[in-house]
Amino acid sequence: MRRVVALSLIAATSALAPSPLRIRDRLAAGVRRPAAKDYYAFRRENDETVLDRTDEETEVTEDDAEAPLVRGQSLYHERHKKEIEDGILSHLTELGLTLKEAAEALMGGHADDVVAFSETNEYRDLQKHARAMEQEHLRELLEDPQRFRAMSLEASNCGVFLDWTRQKVSEATMAKLFDLARTMGVPAKIKQMQNGERINTSERRAVLHTALRARRGDAHHDVSEDVARYTSMLEEAVPIDDAIKASCDVRDRLLAFVDDVRNGRVRSVRGEPFESVVVVGIGGSYLGPEFVTQATAGERAPIKDGQNLNVRFVANVDPVAFDVATAGLDATKTLAIVVSKSWTTAETLRNARKVRRWVVDACIQKDARLSEPQIVRAHFVACASRTAAAEVEAWGVDSDKRLFEFWNWVGGRYSSTSSAGVLPLALARGSTAARAFLDGARAMDAHFFDEPLETNVPVVMALLGIWNVNFLGLGARAVVPYSEALARFAAHVQQLEMESHGKSVTIDGRPLDFVTGEIVIGEPGTNAQHSFFQLLHQGQAVPTDFIGFLRPDDATSDLAGHDELMSNFFAQPDALAVGRAFEDVLGDAMGADGGDLENCPHRTLSGDRPSLTLLLDKLDAFHVGALLSLYEHRCAVQGFVWDINSFDQWGVQLGKDLAGDVRANIRGEAGAPRMNPSTAALLERYRVATRSAPP
């Protein structure tokens, strides 16, 4: 397989490199990449065998008038590839390599240990197979009485049943997808994740969110002294069993605190029981925990768990978000949770200061003898890394008793089973529900780690997504839970998958030449049917995950209403798959008085729209945990197949960095970075509207 070796070459010679310049600094200084244009000419002028190339790619340059027009997502793949190649080439020539040496380093080299997804035999076979499957119609495929047996699967220990009979696949398709997964090393990568190896290579961390729901004594049988270690930001190596122990220690301390709050043993600064909680976070510290807390609204806590608290979330720095989150709450009886692993997240700390002012002012208004440090110590809790303990303490939170740790080996979007998610859940629903939620996630973890590919629910779902994206060209997906309690689930999945899979290079830095990830949309049924389903039925084909529950939560007594909900749940997948043939529409029109023949084309639904069905036993904390874990593992497997890093998010950081530059311009700070003319004009309009424009 072909491998770009230039990145390792750069790493080996980085000490010789000149100081890097940001793009706009290079442009301002008139710096260009003079070697790049010559490099593309060099490629055209030399035979491909000399450069060890086997592909037939064509570079698009300003003076190449006959280059084929590249459209859609392919344009962005090509642009990103060119950006990386130009940068590497310029760097290598600055280090003293000749143009020929640099070009050969950039393009050449073979390595047996690198498997490129789009260059495997299985990929090419699936491309051909997809053309054949496109000729099949789900209307006919569903008539096969053996199809349901072959294309359904149950994770019995989790109460999760999967039916994918309405996907555009055959048994042969599935066999080919499993072969592709094996070629891409999925079983070994799953084991690496379980064992705590550093599979998040760009941040040099393990991926151990599954340790967050493990029980004391859970064994990792294949863990060796050398392999099963994770590395934190401080470069401290700790065995994975220690990660499990640390998780259990924090969990026990957290749930004991929750029991004390809910039973009135931990009180406000004025000695009153807490009635409400405001959780301040953003991204994974918000979307997942909010989804979990809402989804478990039907839980009935036992008496020993104490009184439920009204838990609200604030994430957006828009002042309206704060107003909505605090509306109707008594600040003097509110506990605040600030979630920031590093204690540096700008949006979170800004909102935290606002909540702090709200609580402090209200308490002092009731009792002027109270001090701000005294109030903050009584009313605020932190979920952060232990490495941020000094910052947490300086902010005013008791870092010994009120800091509930989560670690650098837990990514934000995978942190719903950490203190960031479990603390709000337990305060809202009780420690019994929180433990059940963790047990559900743990049960799905066991299914994922123990089952072979063919009977592994997250693996099957992941491969179906890859089939739709990379071979059928269907790049969007709808997530539609038939439960109002899961109203925020689609937003969580959207962040989980789109942040994980929004990548342009493989895990070892090679530019991608295929699409990764799906554009995720979603809304609870039946609302979704009256929102975007018209496009699904007669517009673009959007594969859909239908999620339903055999039994409603314990708080629901309207069984007839649940029957109505589930009638729609079972009907919609068939409506998408089977559609309504023109002949049937015509027959109805001919049989009706007046025969509305003109509308027959409008009433025809071609069907053949793929979907899958997930049925869970009951809407409760256990099954919410299992559902969360299922989608986390689905996400990880897709990254394993595509050979990308699903656990970093460098694209998000750029926006944060630029926001700092913009903020300096808004404030009129001396030395604020220059903005491009368009942004400068927009900022001028903003300044005129909000304050006096600077001279």
Would you summarize the structure shown here?
The chain has 27 helices and 13 strands. By secondary structure, the chain is α/β, with parallel strands linked by helices. Helix 12 runs antiparallel to helix 20.
List the helices and strands and how they pair.
Layout (H helix, E strand, L loop, with lengths): L5 H7 L10 H6 L5 H12 L26 H23 L4 H9 L13 H13 L4 H4 L5 H4 L1 E4 L4 E4 L7 H13 L2 H10 L33 E3 L5 E3 H23 L13 E5 L6 H9 L14 E5 L4 H8 L7 E6 L6 H21 L5 H8 E5 L4 H7 L7 E3 L13 H11 L1 H20 L6 H15 L4 E6 L7 H13 L17 E4 L10 H6 L5 E8 L7 H20 L3 H10 L8 H4 L7 E8 L2 H22 L7 H17 L10 H14 L5
Parallel strand pairs: 5-6, 5-7, 7-8, 8-9, 10-11, 10-12, 12-13
Antiparallel strand pairs: 1-2, 2-13, 3-4
Helix pairs in contact: 3-4, 4-5, 6-9, 9-19, 11-17, 12-17, 12-20, 14-15, 17-18, 18-25, 19-25, 20-25
Question: Explain this structure to me?
Answer:
- By secondary structure, the protein is an alpha/beta fold.
- Helix content is 47%, strand content 9%.
- It has 27 helices and 13 strands.
- It has helices at 6-12, 23-28, 34-45, 72-94, 99-107, 121-133, 138-141, 147-150, 171-183, 186-195, 240-262, 287-295, 319-326, 346-366, 372-379, 389-395, 419-429, 431-450, 457-471, 489-501, 533-538, 559-578, 582-591, 600-603, 621-642, 650-666, 677-690, and strands at residues 152-155, 160-163, 229-231, 237-239, 276-280, 310-314, 334-339, 380-384, 403-405, 476-481, 519-522, 544-551, 611-618.
- It has a 6-stranded mixed beta sheet with strand order 1-2-13-12-10-11, with helices on both faces. A 5-stranded parallel beta sheet has the order 6-5-7-8-9, with helices on both faces.
- Helix 12 (287-295) links the parallel strand 5 and strand 6 (310-314).
- Helix 12 packs parallel to helix 17.
- The protein starts with 5 loop residues before the first helix and ends in a 5-residue tail after the last helix.
- Mean pLDDT is 86; it is low at 1-37, 47-68 and 223-237.
